[in-house]
Design a protein that fits this description.
- By secondary structure, this protein is of the alpha/beta class.
- It has 2 domains: 8-149, Response regulator (Rossmann fold); 175-298, Response regulator (Rossmann fold, 3-Layer(aba) Sandwich), CATH 3.40.50.2300.
- Helices cover 45% and strands 16% of the residues.
- It has 10 helices and 10 strands.
- It has helices at 32-42, 54-64, 80-90, 105-113, 126-150, 152-168, 186-198, 209-222, 241-251, 283-298, and strands spanning 24-28, 47-51, 68-72, 95-100, 118-121, 178-182, 202-206, 229-233, 256-261, 275-278.
- Helix 7 (186-198) links the parallel strand 6 and strand 7.
- The chain is globular, with a radius of gyration of 22 Å.
Length: 310
C-alpha cells in the first residue's frame, strides 16, 4: 500500500499523481476482548493491525508505521508506558492512545507526559473511540503531507546528486564509514539501522553475535576491511557482547567499540571497550559518539590500544 504522499518522481502511478491510502491503526493489548472489539470498530475505515503483546507490537510499529496506536498500559513482559516511550523515541509523529481498566490520575498524567495523545478507561464508548481515532489519524496524515511537500526539492536534489554520483563514480580516497550493530531487540536494531543510515553511514545489522563475527571474518579475508565502529548489546542470545567485543578487538584493533547495556558496566572493567552507553539511550547520543570517533580518525588521531578508559 502506498503512503499518503509520494514525491512526484517516485510515484508508481506516473508523474503528477498522488496516492492516498487508508489510515493505519495498531492495537496492542494482551486481552482478546478489547483487542477484538477495537479491531471490529475500525476494520471498515482503516487498515488495522493487532498484537497480543508489547514486543510483537513494537515490531509492527517498525514494519507497518501506523498512524495511531492503541496500547494497553498493563501487559506482561513490558508496560504500556515503556512501549509508549520506545514509539515516541523513534517515531515521534505516531499518535498513541493508552487504554487501561485501572483508573488513576497519576497513571494518566504519566502517560500524557510521555507523549500519549489520550487516555481511555475500559470499558470505553465506541463513539468516543471513533472520534479520537478520526482526529488522530487526520493529524498524522496532515503532518506527513506537510513534510512531504516541504521536502520535495530536497528529495529531488538528493536523487539528482545520487544519479550523477552513479555516473561519475565515487571520488578517490572516499569511503563511507561502516558500522556493525548487534542487538537481539529487533525494534531497537531496526531503529538504530535506520537512524545511522539516514546519517550517511553504512550499517550492517545482526541479531546474533556469531553472525556478526562470521561476517567480520569474511570481510577481513576477502576485502581486508573492518568496520569503523562496532555497536553491540551486552547480552546477545548466543554470545555475550563482551566476547564479541574482545574478538573484534583482536581481529580489528582500530575498530571503535560501543557497548549497549542496561547493567552497570565501567570501561575500566573491560579494556577492549571504548564507550559504554547505558540503556535506555537516545539515538542522537549514539550517533554523536560515532561521529566523534570518525572525526578523530579523520584528524589522524592514533588508534587506541584499549589500555585506558575513554
Amino acid at each position: 500500500m502506498e503512503p499518503l504522499f509520494v514525491p512526484l518522481w517516485l510515484s508508481p502511478h506516473g508523474v503528477g499523481e498522488f496516492c492516498v491510502s487508508r489510515g493505519k491503526i495498531l492495537i496492542i493489548d494482551d486481552e482478546p476482548g478489547p483487542r477484538e472489539a477495537l479491531q471490529m470498530v475500525f476494520a471498515e475505515l482503516y487498515d488495522v493491525y493487532v498484537a497480543e503483546g508489547p514486543q510483537y507490537g513494537l515490531r509492527l510499529v517498525a514494519s507497518k508505521r501506523p498512524d495511531l496506536v492503541f496500547c494497553d498500559i498493563r501487559m506482561p513482559g513490558m508496560s504500556g508506558l515503556e512501549v509508549l516511550r520506545r514509539i515516541k523515541e523513534t517515531y515521534p509523529e505516531t499518535e498513541v492512545v493508552m487504554i487501561t481498566a485501572f483508573a488513576g490520575l497519576d497513571l494518566a498524567q504519566e502517560a500524557l507526559r510521555g507523549g500519549a495523545t489520550d487516555y481511555l478507561l475500559k470499558p470505553f464508548g465506541l463513539e468516543e473511540v471513533r472520534g479520537i481515532a478520526e482526529q488522530a489519524v487526520q493529524r498524522v496524515r496532515e503532518h506527513r503531507a506537510r513534510q512531504g511537500r516541504d521536502s520535495q526539492l530536497e528529495y529531488a536534489t538528493h536523487e539528482l546528486a545520487a544519479r550523477l554520483q552513479e555516473v561519475a563514480g565515487p571520488p578517490p580516497d572516499t569511503q563511507v564509514p561502516q558500522v556493525m550493530v548487534a542487538d537481539d531487540d529487533e525494534f531497537l536494531l531496526e531503529a538504530i539501522e535506520a537512524y545511522l543510515t539516514s546519517a550517511g553511514l553504512r550499517v550492517q545489522a545482526f541479531s546474533r553475535g556469531r553472525a556478526a563475527l562470521s561476517q567480520l571474518g569474511r570481510y577481513l579475508r576477502e576485502k581486508g576491511v573492518a568496520p569503523d565502529v562496532l555497536v553491540t548489546d551486552l547480552r546477545l542470545p548466543d554470545l555475550l557482547g563482551f566476547h564479541l567485543a574482545r574478538r573484534v578487538r583482536e581481529w580489528a584493533p582500530d575498530t571503535w567499540i560501543i557497548l549497549l547495556t542496561s547493567e552497570h558496566v565501567e570501561v575500566d572493567q573491560a579494556p577492549f571497550l571504548d564507550v559504554v552507553l547505558p540503556k535506555p539511550f537516545r539515538l542522537p547520543v549514539l550517533l554523536d559518539n560515532i561521529q566523534a570517533r570518525l572525526a578523530a580518525q579523520a584528524a589522524g588521531e592514533p588508534p587506541s590500544d584499549g589500555s585506558s578508559p575513554r
